[in-house]
Amino acid sequence: MATALDSNFYAIIPAGGVGSRLWPLSRADEPKFLHDLAGTGNSLLVDTWNRLTPIAGNNIVVVCGVAHKATVTEELPQLNAVDLILEPSPKDSTAAIALAAAVLVRRNPDAIIGSFAADHVIADDRRFGNAVREAIATALAGYIVTIGIRPTEPSTAFGYIETGAALAIDGAPHARSVSKFVEKPKLDVAIDYVDGDRHLWNAGMFIARASVLLDELRTHRPDVAEPVEAIADAWDSPERDETVARLWPTIPKVAIDYAIAEPAAEAGKLAVIPGEFHWDDIGDFAALARLHNHGRANVLVTLGENTRVLNEGASGLVVSQTSRLISVVGVKDIVIVDTPDALLVTNSTNAQRVKSIVESIRAMGADDVL
Amino acid sequence: MATALDSNFYAIIPAGGVGSRLWPLSRADEPKFLHDLAGTGNSLLVDTWNRLTPIAGNNIVVVCGVAHKATVTEELPQLNAVDLILEPSPKDSTAAIALAAAVLVRRNPDAIIGSFAADHVIADDRRFGNAVREAIATALAGYIVTIGIRPTEPSTAFGYIETGAALAIDGAPHARSVSKFVEKPKLDVAIDYVDGDRHLWNAGMFIARASVLLDELRTHRPDVAEPVEAIADAWDSPERDETVARLWPTIPKVAIDYAIAEPAAEAGKLAVIPGEFHWDDIGDFAALARLHNHGRANVLVTLGENTRVLNEGASGLVVSQTSRLISVVGVKDIVIVDTPDALLVTNSTNAQRVKSIVESIRAMGADDVL
């Protein structure tokens, strides 16, 4: 191991987000993080937990919606009740992470937190662990730290982090400052990024002293910080429920990238550790197909427990949650998702458009299949 | 009407053939002719019956497999038991039509028969009727007569009839001799056929005096004619079942095109009436899509009673026999056939390959979905 375990380190797993682009596999009551998308035999949530225990031990806090309490505790029987933070309603990543940080800093003023989404795929746990350890060392030096993934292709589906100067931090030889965050680019820009070797994918992983993170939030978004701190004050007390019920609805929805990371980068307070491991947020079915075809674009990937698929010259992805016989004839790059009450047929090129189908379904009032 | 109804005319409707290329819509126990593919509200079988009654009155005989007796009589409650000929096993079109002709000629030696498949679509019943009346007049002059469809495009899915000299037949101003039958051609050949104006589509409709048809069969295929005649001798007697059981299995399987029409054409005994109406045998899902998109290649045709389809920029065909929500995103020219136990996804280009899927399913022993 690169550095010893820091007992002040706490991993936060925000388990939010339905994964609309993965409908009809992902549903409101069975979101993306509950599915075994990586083919490990475990849900992405359990994979995330298992990836973090070598680094954080039992110091793992899960933040999820009240609707998913039962399934999350079923997936993670080892999770202590005190380490499960339930959101009454979704308020995006800033509220989830800040509340966890605020609760933890009250339990341990030296807490260092690291936030890792419940529904991402990482292939190399050892390299991931090394990056997190460098990030912890950098956080101890006072930075807010992100882990940016070394791009393997000019993806237009991810945001990018532009790296700046190397930082001289003990235990973090690869730490650099962050010049700025860049939104999902056009292809030609993405190609320049990959060629230029200064840009990393923004994987949404943030590591910081809890107190530093909350100070930044208070500076840039007091409208989020104030109710979050007030809720945290009441969290480990009999006033929790009343305070949550009163203040949670007032919290603005904002992603942590906008609320904290971007202003911190501008202020020179953001550092980045390059992650030299395979990472994917499996944002749509095209990404899911790529994850499983191992670069062979001409195969038909089939996922599902009782999958009966007959392939006659087709390629792409079949996800089956039924026992129906699925015959796929001649179509290339197809995406078929077969569930008991809903069927999706699209292809890789159009995989991002699935989100708008979900909006159409909501508009037509067919919420039973969402 | 072009000519008065000839009371010696009998329509034969061979209701055979599963329609493998329309799997999983067509099944062994629910073949193509039982489906409402034309969107008329009736099965193709009932459409065929309704098209023939203005010409043949009650003189309509249906030939079908024993397995379909119940469904056929349910579809056609007006069909007299004496006019339903049940095949113990499928023996292709020659046996079916010849047996019906042989039974009918024993009941009426002057019988003229006309054979019309149970699972074709015809758009203009009046023009169809006119062609049949000309065919009857030509059959009365001693010819075996086919109705050939004027091609509207250089189809490579149909066989063609090369027409010869005009025949001078009373009541059949458009009758011509047939030079020869041509198998499904390559596209460049088909283009020449359409440009040349001498070729018609072979729609498998045959009209002849029953005695003439059976004489031809006896000449060219005595191996079919002999058992068929022997069965017909016993048909309206107590010996029917025993004779059928003994002789039917010995009958060779052969299409009437090969057994009778081609040799009759060579012998100058075949005539053709050009059919100036829209006809389609709906041989595959591409044909079914074309039938319903009315030339608008960019629409998504949806067929099915409780169809719930959400279309986001897709085109092609969705056939739904379930109440599932089907979302189709961005894929062009797609074919989706959704049934309770089997799903097919292909596209128009590959629609003909569905037949081989059915063979694969049989090979893998999944006969439950055939």
From TrEMBL, chains A, B:
One of its GO terms (molecular function) is mannose-1-phosphate guanylyltransferase (GTP) activity. Signal peptide: none annotated. GO terms for biological process: GDP-mannose biosynthetic process. Residues 315-359 form the MannoseP isomerase/GMP-like beta-helix domain. Residues 11-293 form the Nucleotidyl transferase domain. This is Unannotated protein. It comes from freshwater metagenome. The lineage of its organism: unclassified sequences, metagenomes, ecological metagenomes.
